[in-house]
Amino acid sequence: MSEQSRRPRKPAKPYRRPQKDPVRILAFEALRAVDERDAYANLVLPPLLRKAREKEGPENFDARDAALATELVYGTLRRQGTYDAVIAACVDRPLREVDPPVLDVLSLGVHQLLGTRIPTHAAVSASVELARVVLGDGRAKFVNAVLRKVAQHDLDGWLEKVAPPYDEDPEDHLAVVHSHPRWVVSALWDSLGGGRAGIEDLLEADNERPEVTLVARPGRATAEELLREHAAVPGRWSPYAVRLAEGGEPGAVEAVREGRAGVQDEGSQLVALALANAPVEGSDSRWLDGCAGPGGKAALLAALAAERGATLLASEKQPHRAGLVAKALAGNPGPYQVIAADGTRPPWRPGTFDRVLMDVPCTGLGALRRRPEARWRRRPEDLDNFAPLQRALLRTALDSVRVGGVVGYATCSPHLAETRAVVSDVLKQRPEAELIDARPLLPGVPALGEGPDVQLWPHLHGTDAMYLALIRRTG
Ligand SMILES: C[S@@+](CC[C@H](N)C(=O)[O-])C[C@H]1O[C@@H](n2cnc3c(N)ncnc32)[C@H](O)[C@@H]1O
Fold first, then answer.
1. pTM of the model
2. Are 390 and 358 a contacting pair, CB within 8 Å?
3. Which pLDDT tens digit goes with each residue over 241-273?
4. Distance, CA 331 to ligand 1 centroid (Å)?
5. Are 285 and 313 in contact (CB under 8 A)?
6. Which helix (H) or strand (E) holds 336?
7. Cα(165)–Cα(202) distance, rounded to whole angstroms?
8. Which helix (H) or strand (E) holds 355?
9. Of the residues 304, 316, 329, 419, which should be mutated to test ligand 1's pocket, given the most ligand atoms within 8 Å of the CB?
């Protein structure tokens, strides 16, 4: 008998079943859906949360669990660029060779370690248990080893290691530190202008969870009523806006359930208000929203139109989105009509309308706070795809308005290729149209740019980065 075989063997650890943590499993499933099926986090989460509540029972999956699961998913998706750089520094092969489900478990773990207050040991052990459940024991060891390396530094420590120095490559530095694709950093900076402080504030604001803002639809509800009845504070700029307190649920607001109020970012409210308040000469009875789905701005415009005895035609290409517009407008106190129509081949006669809104399809780079995965999905080529459509829709708007009437061209993107480039290209061929200064139509709102168009920003106005150009048809 050999020396070795006589030595008492260390007893094998008894097998322990992995602990199932419904919050982390749900977060993992949501990330997989976003990764694999190109799903939207804000759409996949609610059914997953409902399912977890039903399966676990409300006592084992309460509001705090739902809030944590939501935070883990949104935070991991937003910070994916930074976390990928950290993970890449801790594994010995290119990230594209790591299985996507393993990468999702790792990213969730890195977010817990570097982006939350969850204690280190809890973040690692919860991630390893999750890995055992969804990946198996073998790959859980890999997850454990990587996360232990990640846990050696805090976020600042890692950023110093993985982000190139600002002076060497400012855009790459900002892309890694603030977790945006480099081309997006570059485009936002081009539009914002200025130095390092402004762009850093903007990128940071993109990583914040936006407040839930309501609009009290004029003639149907008032901001005062909403403020009286709910934990909320007034909007910053729009007289119709109310900001719900942290954790406030719009579904709990009766006026929202009844359609007298809606969920709407203040930037969108300002776009509708500026168009509605732009001076027009002569009649002011026919308004058009040419890209109305899902109907947020149309509902505010229709309510404002009703107060002035005007009618709104809300038109939207996609029939199912036209259905959403009809739902948003139901109960409007004045006359309106909803149609499904392609705005590039409009069924209405030219020169019909006094006011026209064209809130065109765009990359949505101004609403990154709301769609955590959007920044990683968008490609620079998307701009080329939208460009002809945006120009065609603006031409339709200019054809649809009567002489003396006003067009509002809006995007929820600050990318210059979707904003000023479109307006200036189209206006070059339209000597009968001129830009009017939109800034005085947003009284009290600071830092709107040098005009005549306006650009809102999350870090300056607390709104999405909405763009608006107002154009009058002069001949
Ligand atoms: C930015 S969204 C409008 C948002 C809307 N104004 C709101 O506040 O709720 C752009 C809309 O234009 C629609 N759209 C796309 N192509 C169109 C076209 N050729 N004609 C009309 N609408 C179009 C899209 O389906 C989408 O609903």
1. 0.94
2. no
3. 999 998 888 999 999 999 999 999 999 999 999
4. 22
5. no
6. strand 336-340
7. 19
8. strand 353-359
9. 316
